[in-house]
Amino acid sequence: MRHFTVGPPLQLGGRKFKGLRGWAGKPLHPPLTDVPVTAYLFAAVFDVLSVILRSGHQALATELFHAATWTVIGGVAVSVLTALTGWADWYYSSEPGTQARRTINTHATIMIVVTLVMVVDLIFRLIKGDSLSTPVWLMVLTVIGAALVTLGATYGGSMVYDYGFNVETSGDHPVWHKQERDVPPGQKEPTA
User: Fold this and answer.
1) 156-160: average pLDDT
2) Which pLDDT tens digit goes with each residue over 31-55?
3) What is the pTM of this model?
4) At what angle do helices 58-93 and 29-53 cross, to 10 degrees?
């Protein structure tokens, strides 16, 4: 009995390409969201630790400020592509007037606010330059961004797990194949 499948989940052949939306069964937006969500959460942790440790461990507090700054840079950079792929999902996959569209609108609004908060956060970091530690007011801004990104991600997750929005297989329809042999995307499960 085989215990692992490696090829089919990584295969793009046999999947329909849908532009900014990705491929059938392999959308671009969900995996991209992991980067800014994680970046903003880690930046908040780094900033909180920088503030806490600044009096007793100055060198570490400085490095934590630097780590938070680089983490925010990465999160903001990926947020742009994440927003574009999210817009494509909204525009091409949701119908006006539906609960899914209203939930997407809430998710998108929160995430746009998060992105703006983190861009402002980044601007202040770059203006601040080489700080000895994270200023408390900047830590508060980063924590607000982390809290908002968590809220926004909750709405995004609800789209998939509550509504099954934009969830599609690669072309065949079973949720999983009940046989020993792997079935690549776009192929049917053999009947024999």
Assistant:
1) 84
2) 889 999 999 999 999 999 999 998 8
3) 0.80
4) 160
> How remote is the C-alpha of 143 from its chain's centroid?
17
CA distances for 91 relative to 84, 105, 172, angstroms: 10, 11, 25
Measure the CA–CA gap between 45 and 48, rounded to whole angstroms: 5
Q: Cα-flanking dihedrals φ and ψ of residue 122, to 5°? A: -65, -40
Spatial distance between the Cα atoms of 134 and 125, rounded to a whole number of angstroms: 9
The predicted-structure confidence for 43-101, as pLDDT tens digits, reads as follows: 999 999 999 998 889 889 999 999 999 999 999 999 999 999 999 888 888 788 878 78
Task: Tell me how far apart the alpha carbons of residues 174 and 31 are, in angstroms, rounded to a whole number.
Answer: 22
| Residue 156 CA to its chain's centroid (Å) | 9
Separation between Cα atoms, residue 61 and residue 65, nearest integer Å: 6
Q: Which residues contact 41 (CB under 8 A, 6 or more apart)?
A: 146, 149, 150
Would you state the torsion angle of the CA atoms of residues 25, 31, 32, 38, taken in this order, to the nearest 10 degrees? 170
**Beta bridge pairs of residue 170:** none
Do 28 and 35 contact (CB within 8 A), yes or no?
A: no
Contacts of 86 (CB under 8 A, 6+ apart): 29, 33, 107, 108, 111
